[in-house]
Design goal:
13 helices, binds flavin-adenine dinucleotide, Elongation Factor Tu (Ef-tu), domain 3, 7-stranded antiparallel sheet, FAD/NAD(P)-binding domain, elongated, 390 residues, alpha+beta
Length: 390
């Protein structure tokens, strides 16, 4: 049996960061992954350019049943620390919008950087390793793969969430947590497009391709000002992906298509213009036509509407509400909500409170960030913290 100080399961963002940090401390580290490539999610992230962090990382951008949990790790390894690492490797990057940082060239830069950090720290990485069994051995663990048996003092689970099963996502981490008696909170797809109820699909499908800035709001009052995109399957775009993480089946979602007060301004400035013409100057024309038909709005010059009619139109446009049929699920979701309950883990080290030397890092735990580089920052921060102690 091969003996290691640390075994990290999962050669993704959090696992590689943890492995490199532990290796730098002189620990003998082995990373095992069942995939045939390192960091596959990193490679396809951010449209191939990897939105690797965000200038505005703060705890409120993370969903977690234990809201204070993320504070320590995010403060100990910040976005500035990761940016310094990216700078050290001379990777060119730019801010796209809302503080989101992307590689100028390719997400491959980030994978190469992590691999180099691991190599320099003497970390071994084994791909295509199918893990069959993990067991407790004294203070440490044994890990059996299809062709080899290993032992280690510290075991780090960095197997990520359930999104994109085609590129290697698996429930391995949740099962392992349960095997060791840790609570796993129910999982569901997050940062994911909505599908529509049949009647909405019929009226909105012709809008596929239309995109506009909105404010999306969930029933709990969470709001995101970003773009809404109509698709053949339903609703997408950053506003929808963001709000999907706050949405529960059966709930409604509201979209502010026009800011409050804009219609009153229109009535004052262009009283003779018909509603359809005026709206066509504010919103995409295809959307205006669909809205008038769908919401049963009569088209006439703005000055001819009664105050009550105007209030009703304003209500439809500032709080256009619908009940999604569901989400596209893990097939297209960027993240998994829920996971290993953080009440079971140390917020400083990521170690399981009741299983010494067992660690969980990255998305496998119940921490989910907003769209915009937050999920990678959680992978870097949590992986780094575990890397200091394993
Ligand atoms: C399409 C897409 C785009 C995204 N874009 C962004 C973005 O731009 N910015 C951002 O912040 N976040 C983005 N995300 C989210 C981000 O990729 C994840 O939150 C992040 O990768 C989580 O890191 P992780 O190390 O926890 O898991 P992962 O990076 O998913 O790594 C988990 C690793 O574990 C391995 N593994 C799983 N099961 C097993 C098993 N049974 N045995 C052995 N190995 C196993 C997998 O093969 C994988 O290599 C995106 C996600 C997707 C799907």
């Amino acid at each position: 049996m091969q003996a290691w100080d640390v075994i990290v399961i999962g050669a993704g963002a959090a696992g590689l960061m943890c492995a490199a940090e532990a290796g730098k401390r002189g620990r003998r580290v082995l990373v095992l992954d069942h995939g045939k490539r390192i960091g596959r999610k990193i490679l396809m992230s951010g449209g191939g350019r990897c939105n690797f962090t965000n200038y505005h990382v703060e705890p409120k951008a993370f969903l977690c049943a234990n809201p204070h949990f993320v504070k320590s790790a995010l403060a100990r390894y910040t976005q500035w620390d990761f940016i310094a690492l990216v700078d050290k490797h001379r990777i060119a990057f730019h801010e796209k919008t809302l503080g989101q940082l992307f590689c100028d060239d390719s997400a491959q830069n980030i994978v190469d950087m992590l691999v180099k950090e691991c190599e320099q720290a003497g970390v071994s990485i084994r791909l295509r390793a199918e893990i069959l069994e993990v067991e407790r051995l004294g203070e440490g663990f044994t890990v059996a793969t299809h062709d080899e048996a290993y032992s280690c003092h510290s075991l780090v689970v960095a197997t990520g969430g359930l999104s994109m099963p085609k590129i290697g996502a698996s429930p391995f981490g949740y099962k392992l947590a349960e095997q060791f008696g840790l609570r796993v909170l129910p999982t569901r797809a997050g940062l994911v497009p909505f599908t529509l109820q049949p009647e909405d699909k019929q009226s909105l499908e012709p809008l596929a391709g239309v995109s506009l800035p909105v404010v999306a709001e969930s029933e709990d009052g969470t709001r995101f000002a970003e773009n809404l995109l109509f698709t053949h399957r339903g609703l997408s775009g950053p506003a929808v992906l963001q709000i999907s993480s706050y949405w529960q089946p059966g709930e409604r979602v509201c979209f502010e298509l026009l800011p409050a007060g804009r219609l009153a301004e229109g009535v004052a400035d262009s009283p003779n213009q018909e509603l359809k013409t005026w709206l066509g100057r504010q919103l995409p024309k295809r959307l205006v036509e669909a809205l008038l038909a769908r919401e049963g709005l009569v088209n006439k010059p703005l000055k001819q509407y009664t105050p009550r009619e105007l209030a009703a139109i304003e209500e439809r446009l500032t709080a256009w509400s619908l009940k999604p049929g569901g989400t596209e699920g893990y097939r297209t979701a960027e993240v998994t909500l829920g996971g290993v309950d953080t009440h079971e883990l140390s917020s400083k080290t990521m170690m399981a409170n009741k299983v010494p030397n067992l660690y969980f890092v990255g998305e496998v735990m119940d921490v989910t960030g907003w769209l915009g580089g937050y999920n990678f920052q959680w992978a870097w921060s949590s992986g780094w913290c575990a890397g200091q102690v394993v």
